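> call design_seq(struct)
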């Protein structure tokens, strides 16, 4: 068109406005502009007096620059201003992304197992392995998850305990004994989670499982025990039998639980019959006291009687043996005397007479004085009599 030719060649438009650059150089200011403005640095001017071309003299006279061209120029200017810094920014962004991904991986892969704990690692919900105390690693969630179980913590479960101590006995504390009596019994059970994989996967509620199994075991053992044994001497046997039965039950369930101790906290008759039962107990205690006293007297008197009987028997036996020996000795002496008499009758007869007289008069006070031939007795002091009086 005529105005486009004038703009490119520096001529004059239809309204007498010069095209701008007589020398034909894009962007030049050598040519005058008598009819219009030339402040755009050599831009071509449209017939409506506005610059339509670019600063490079592209020859487009109408419409704005397209978006692609402007974006390309903006990118070139940014690259020229930043120089090598454009690629540095990309590396910084990439490094930040790596740090974020690494931190997320570490937070979801590293975990700590405390002493006294064991960790069960589950892969897609299925148990994979068991880890002990220390710093452990796993695949991030949701590939692997960790469930920690304290194997050192001692847990307690009670049977028959009421939340309010002032309340009457609960129904689970009243139990029937082996002799068809009712006893109010409260039991404390101490247990631990010994095998974490069974503890987590084989039972839904371990606390409730121990509660129900403990109550069942106690009722079974008490049902075989008389009430007197349950209230007095049989408590320890009930505890041991309950622990064994409860442990066997949990092993059958594969609950992964070990029972440490079973304690009978309170064993007494129901509140309604407690006074009558106490009276019976008091009477039985009095009976036992009297029986024990009689037993003590029996234990004292029987050994004494046995000792006296043994002493009398031993004395009689000694007397029997002494008299028997003496009689045997006398008989033997008579036999020897008879033999001597046969050999010398006169001498033996004289000897027997003298021995007999010695035996008769030996302890007497008789004095025999031979008054033959005019002899007279000599005066003497009664020394034996005086000695006896002094004594």
């Amino acid at each position: 068109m005529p105005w486009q030719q004038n703009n490119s060649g520096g001529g004059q438009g239809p309204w007498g406005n010069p095209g701008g650059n007589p020398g034909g150089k894009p962007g030049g200011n050598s040519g005058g502009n008598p009819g219009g403005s030339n402040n755009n640095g050599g831009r071509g001017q449209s017939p409506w007096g506005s610059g339509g071309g670019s600063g490079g003299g592209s020859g487009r006279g109408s419409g704005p620059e397209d978006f692609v061209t402007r974006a390309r120029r903006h990118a070139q200017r940014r690259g020229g201003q930043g120089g090598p810094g454009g690629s540095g920014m990309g590396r910084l962004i990439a490094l930040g992304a790596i740090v974020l991904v690494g931190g997320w991986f570490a937070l979801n892969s590293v975990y700590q197992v405390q002493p006294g704990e064991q960790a069960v690692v589950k892969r897609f919900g299925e148990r994979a392995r068991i880890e002990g105390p220390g710093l452990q690693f796993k695949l991030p969630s949701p590939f692997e998850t960790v469930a920690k179980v304290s194997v050192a913590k001692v847990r307690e479960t009670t049977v028959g305990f009421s939340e309010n101590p002032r309340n009457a006995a609960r129904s689970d504390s009243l139990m029937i004994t082996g002799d068809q009596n009712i006893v109010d019994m409260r039991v404390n059970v101490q247990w631990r989670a010994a095998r974490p994989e069974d503890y987590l996967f084989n039972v839904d509620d371990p606390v409730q499982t121990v509660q129900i199994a403990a109550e069942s075991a106690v009722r079974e053992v008490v049902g075989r025990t008389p009430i007197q044994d349950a209230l007095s001497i049989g408590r320890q046997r009930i505890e041991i039998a309950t622990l064994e039965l409860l442990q066997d039950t949990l092993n059958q369930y594969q609950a992964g639980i070990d029972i440490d101790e079973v304690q009978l906290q309170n064993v007494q008759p129901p509140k309604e019959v407690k006074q009558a039962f106490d009276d019976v107990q008091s009477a039985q205690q009095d009976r036992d006291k009297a029986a024990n006293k009689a037993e003590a007297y029996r234990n004292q008197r029987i050994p004494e009687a046995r000792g006296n009987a043994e002493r009398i028997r031993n004395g009689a036996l000694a007397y029997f043996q002494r008299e028997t020996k003496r009689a045997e000795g006398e008989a033997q002496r008579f036999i020897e005397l008879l033999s001597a008499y046969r050999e010398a009758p006169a001498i033996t007869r004289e000897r027997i007479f003298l021995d007999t007289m010695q035996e008769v008069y030996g302890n007497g006070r008789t004095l025999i004085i031979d008054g033959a031939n005019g002899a007279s007795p000599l005066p003497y002091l009664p020394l034996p009599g005086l000695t006896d009086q002094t004594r």
